[in-house]
Recover the amino acids of this structure.
């Protein structure tokens, strides 16, 4: 099985920064009080951060079973965070239109 941890770490860290930009721009524009957008972006930030942690742990551990378990956790957290980002984009699209 090919290791995905390095790819998950790279993508999660980049999207973590994107999620933080979303939250910051919402707080500056005062747009967050009308929607649940900042909650979804905040949850995505947490999931991306934990995904980074577990993928890094998967890369650094010497135990194969633990590495596979951490990689699987990181993968599911990454997918959940992507779902939160998609919900955020849908909310922004609906509010703009």
């Amino acid at each position: 099985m090919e290791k995905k941890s390095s790819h998950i770490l790279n993508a999660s860290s980049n999207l973590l920064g994107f999620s933080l930009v979303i939250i910051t721009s919402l707080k500056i524009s005062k747009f967050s009080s009308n929607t649940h957008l900042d909650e979804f972006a905040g949850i995505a930030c947490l999931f991306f951060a934990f995904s980074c942690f577990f993928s890094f742990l998967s890369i650094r551990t010497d135990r194969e079973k633990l590495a596979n378990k951490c990689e699987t956790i990181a993968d599911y957290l990454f997918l959940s965070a992507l779902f939160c980002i998609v919900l955020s984009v849908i909310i922004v699209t609906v509010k703009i239109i």
